Amino acid sequence: MKISMAEVEHVARLARLELTPEEKEKFTHQLNDILEFAAKLQAIDTEGVPPTSHVLNLKNVWREDEVHDWLTQEEALANAPAAADGCFQVPRIIEE
Amino acid sequence: MEIYDLTAHELSRLLKAREISAAELTEAVLERVDEVEPAVRAYVTVTREEALAAARRVDEARARGEDLGPLAGIPMAVKDNMCTRTVRTTCSSRILENFIPPYDATVVERLAAAGTVMIGKTNLDEFAMGSSTENSAFFTTRNPWDLERVPGGSSGGSAAAVAAGEAVFSLGSDTGGSIRQPASLCSVVGLKPTYGRVSRFGLVAFASSLDQIGPLTKDVTDCALVMNVISGWDKMDSTSAPVEVPDFTQFLGREVRGLKIGLPREFFAEGIDREVKEIILTAVRVLEGLGAVVEETSLPHSDYSLPVYYILAPAEASSNLARFDGVRYGLRVDAPDLISMYGQTRSRGFGAEVRRRIIIGTYALSSGYYDAYYKKAQQVRTLIKQDFDRAFEKYDVLITPTSPTPAFKIGEKADNPIQMYLSDICTIPVNLAGIPGLSIPCGFTAEGLPVGMQLLGKPFAEGTLLQVAYAYEQSTDHHKKRPPLAGAAGGERHA
């Protein structure tokens, strides 16, 4: 096993996902299959090979920083699960 | 043939000659939707009223004598991961079930400006992660050629809609084969353009270095017509390419004599269904008969494409999908504190495959594993791309099967991620290299299931793919066949 259930729990926490006990078990199993599959890559010599993050030869795409019309505040907030006073509303973060 | 069986270029002639109005055509396609949708289930949302209004506007413009393009008045469908202003855009996910975008994707805007009529938004595997539409949070779309089988995915709704006559053409998105594989399984033409050819602005991001939007159409001419509208640089997408867009129809009808075609042997090896292989080789002989020069070649790192993809795509996805946090849009599950609100929202909102990929991606990017997985995969991606660069020094086009098998049964691979991933084995290397790939119908198995041939070209050489595909299409009649769906006039419509 490359990845333990404790590691799956840790990674799920990092990704802000809550898993049920059955999911933890199933995912641990399936993730090991996938990682085993990925282990094939270790066999290739990549010494000195540059990584490809992107296929286009584009670097630092600049544009003028100009003001233009986009969404109104109402439009930007229209899909918010909770909004108040023109702001997105979230559960209390700072303790009293 | 019924009205809904016709291609965009055929319908365009009828519209211009005023033999049919855009409103009548839209009504005919909406009737077809009513007739077959209970069996096929291609659409998440049908925009009936908006479609009829848009069609009437085209008719009015024509009555005023305005100069309209070839796609004006043509009913089409858009995969439900592209933003449509005022029309719900779900990504077939619970987390976006009620999301109404405040803007249009660039491709949607361009198609609207060309006068096309959007019939609705099509079903997909949740966030485009899958090869069958079985990962849709809502329902599974069925293959119009055999309702017990998947239409492919993730753009399965877009492919099924076109095959069933529920849209004249559609848009899909392709991250690892999501346009081409369903096109192959449903017997339509599907093109994944070169990375950067078509703006991704307004496409809900899955894996940003691989995603590309493209058309699914009934024939090659329609594919060229749609590409003419959607291609080109966009200031809203910094990864769209500042490359000139040709009139793609000019490539149709050019002969293929002397063109060099390579058959990479890795794509005809173990794992490819024997019948599929035979059908592809028969199709290649048609091109040879037209004067193309065919040789066997090799892309030695092909075997590594799948593991590279299943590191890189989830890594990019885990980052892209971090935005779904229950704050600005989408589902929120209320909880007493912020961290549990995030966790419960994302667990309730995302399906199993999406969560699986977020976890794999987060793991591959986490400290201690980054070099072993993510960086290694990016380096092997370079080797895969170099294989293609070398092959294209010698060949104009490479040909492979699009999918290793014809359409599989619903449920057959649903609980085995790796088996499901293998259905993209022929299409994934193309996204990693960023080159264009086109799937064209090239026959049927003994069971009557469609098979597609994949044509691959140099970066920005979509024109060459259209040229070869058109030459093949004009020598065969696979593109004229329509699935024998119940309710259709005349019963047996196979021939």
* CATH arch. level architecture of chain B: Alpha-Beta Complex
**Under CATH, the topology of chain B is which?**
Amidase signature (AS) enzymes
- Envelope shape of chain A: flat
Biggest sheet details of chain B = 11 strands, mixed
Give the gist of this structure.
Chain A is mainly α. Chain A has a domain at 5-43: Glu-tRNAGln amidotransferase C subunit, N-terminal domain (Histone, subunit A, Orthogonal Bundle).
Could you explain the architecture of this structure?
- The complex is a heterodimer of chains A (96) and B (495).
- By secondary structure, chain A is mainly α.
- Chain A has a domain at 5-43: Histone, subunit A, CATH 1.10.20.
- Helix content of chain A is 34%, strand content 4%.
- Chain A is flat.
- Chain B is of the alpha/beta class.
- Chain B has a single domain (3-301, 382-480), classed as Amidase signature (AS) enzymes, CATH 3.90.1300.
- Chain B is built from 15 helices and eleven strands.
- Chain B has an eleven-stranded mixed β-sheet with strand order 1-3-2-4-6-5-10-11-9-7-8, sandwiched between helices.
- The longest helix of chain B is centred in the C-terminal third of the chain and has 25 residues, at 370-394.
- The radius of gyration of chain B is 21 Å and the shape is globular.
- Classes of the chains: A mainly alpha (96), B alpha/beta (495).
- Chains A and B meet through α1 and α2 of A and α9, α10, α11 and α12 of B.
Task: Supply database-style keywords.
heterodimer, A: 96 residues, mainly alpha, Histone, subunit A, 3 helices, 2 strands, 4% strand, flat, B: 495 residues, alpha/beta, Amidase signature (AS) enzymes, eleven-stranded mixed sheet, 15 helices, 11 strands, 37% helix, globular, disordered C terminus
List the helices and strands and how they pair.
The complex is a heterodimer of chains A (96) and B (495).
Chain A: H1 5-14, H2 21-38, H3 73-77, E1 83-84, E2 87-88
Antiparallel strand pairs in A: 1-2
Chain B: H1 8-16, H2 22-40, E1 43-46, H3 48-63, E2 75-79, H4 106-113, E3 117-122, H5 156-163, E4 169-174, H6 180-186, E5 189-192, E6 212-217, H7 220-230, E7 260-264, H8 274-289, E8 293-297, H9 305-320, H10 338-349, H11 352-365, H12 370-394, E9 397-401, H13 417-421, H14 428-433, E10 437-444, E11 450-457, H15 462-474
Parallel strand pairs in B: 2-3, 2-4, 7-8, 7-9
Antiparallel strand pairs in B: 1-3, 4-6, 5-6, 5-10, 9-11, 10-11
Helix pairs in contact in B: 2-3, 5-6, 7-15, 9-11, 9-12
